[in-house]
Amino acid sequence: MSWPGVIHAYLPYLPFAADTPIITLNEGNTPLIRADRLAEAIAPKAGLQLYLKYEGLNPTGSFKDRGMTAAITQAVAEGAKTVICASTGNTAASAAAYAARAGLRCLVLVPEGKIALGKLAASLAYGAEVISIAGSFDDGLNLVCEIVRRQPIALVNSINPWRLEGQKTAAFEICDQLGGRAPDWHCLPVGNAGNISAYWLGYRQYGKGLPRLLGGQASGAAPIVLGRVVEKPETLATAIRIGNPARWQQALAALDESGGIITAVSDDDILQSWRLLARLEGVFVEPASATGLAALKQQIALGEIDPVGKTAVCVLTGHGLKDPATAVAHANPPHTLPADITALEAYLQR
Ligand code: AN7
After folding, report:
1. In a 10 Å sphere around its CB, with 0-12 CB exposed, 13-18 middle and 19+ buried, how is residue 102 labelled?
2. 3-state DSSP: the chain helix, strand, coil percent, rounded to 5?
3. pTM of this structure
4. For all residues of the chain together, what is the average pLDDT?
């Protein structure tokens, strides 16, 4: 049977009536990939069972689709004709796709010059009205919160509780894919802190055990680690270039209840983990998505996490093709050769 999308798959765990018309792109059911070479690289001979939850394989290339199927379904059920969000890019692309499928008008506010090409391209292709603001994601979020107080428009940022309802299904999937248990450590990037909050809801509700949460923030955009708003967040991981997360308090509660850790990693750490994912495991992600792995690697190296015999899941939140420019900028350039066999053979024997 084909996969029906996360709402149909987990309907008994979600607050939708059975007859609600569901707007879905059959999101979810993403692979949990065993990563033995990577485990050996970050924790040699520790018997660490490392898994990658490859959320970049969702329909619009990021984990946002899980929450968006729920938010757009609910918006339609409530009679909305227009939806809006602020976004560093992935929420925008996802909202645009699901709004297109539902026949809704969609406005997305993005920070000018700080949205990766694949996200902009997709948002435009799906027909969203892309509004590029001379400000940050945080400025955009303030604006959309204000406009929905004035106008009959549905907000689909993760302050919308339906987003978390959809996103928590990823925790259910991980437990199912691990054979009915939660991992010891659950590692992920933290931006607006919707995803970490959603995972914690999911693990608690599913009743298959609770992991400890490990959140990674980019060191130039680490408000939760620092305990204060970052006015001018900066990181090459533009997805998580966020200085004042909406789900801050909920994330702190989840970290506390799970006995978790939130830590900052540098852009270099993020790039290094991003490279390891691609080169050791063949998994290409956007830079922000490597932040959970960078955090795990850091905490193992510091002795804060004992990897021996443990199971860890790193959530890879977005596909590598989201941000081709950063990928090319941080790789060796291609070799150029004449189209000639002698040159090719000489190159091989170099
Ligand atoms: C690839 O799209 O905030 O902590 O506006 O795109 O739930 O915010 C994106 C966030 C991690 C952080 N990885 O998740 C947006 C946006 C990727 C992301 C995060 C985002 P949250």
Report:
1. middle
2. 45, 15, 35
3. 0.98
4. 98
Return d(Cα 62, Cα 59) in angstroms, integer: 8
Reported as a single tens digit per residue, the pLDDT across 206-259 is: 999 999 999 999 999 999 999 999 999 999 999 999 999 999 999 999 999 999
- CA neighbor of 166 nearest in space, from 50, 1, 20: 20
Ligand 1 environment, Cβ below 6 A: 62, 87-91, 158, 189-195, 239-240, 286, 288-289, 317-318
Instruction: Tell me how far the alpha carbon of residue 239 lies from the centroid of ligand 1, in angstroms.
Output: 5
The pair phi, psi for residue 145, each rounded to 5°, is -65, -35
89: left (phi over 0), alpha (psi -120 to 50) or beta: left
Domains of the chain: 6-61+163-329 (3.40.50.1100), 64-160 (3.40.50.1100)
- DSSP per position, 164-181: HHHHTHHHHHHHHHTTS-
